[in-house]
Amino acid sequence: MTEDIFARPLVPVASEDDAETTANAAITYLQGDSETVTVLSVIEKAGGAPDKASVEQ
What superkingdom heads the lineage (predicted)? Predict the structure, then answer.
């Protein structure tokens, strides 16, 4: 049995302003109170370049 890829969307947000903008855009696609959305906070490290340090550091 395969679950629909869009059944549980993953929504990345980078800041408070981005979260509000993203929520306002996404709300039009949700169909009722039982919708499940996973929100992921995105943390930019080293100005977008790969960083060798771990997240804990």
Answer: Archaea
Question: Which three-class secondary structure state does DSSP give residue 45?
Answer: coil
Q: How many domains does the chain have?
A: 1
* pTM exceeding the 0.70 threshold for the entire prediction: no
Q: What tokens appear for 40 in the block?
A: 């992921």
- Strand positions, DSSP E, 1-57: 10-13, 38-41
Measured distance between the N- and C-terminal CA atoms of the chain, rounded to whole angstroms: 41
Within a domain: residue 56?
A: no
Q: For the segment 8-37, what is each residue's pLDDT rounded down to a tens digit?
A: 788 889 888 888 998 888 888 777 766 778
Report helix, strand or coil for 40: strand
Contact 32, 4 (CB under 8 A): no
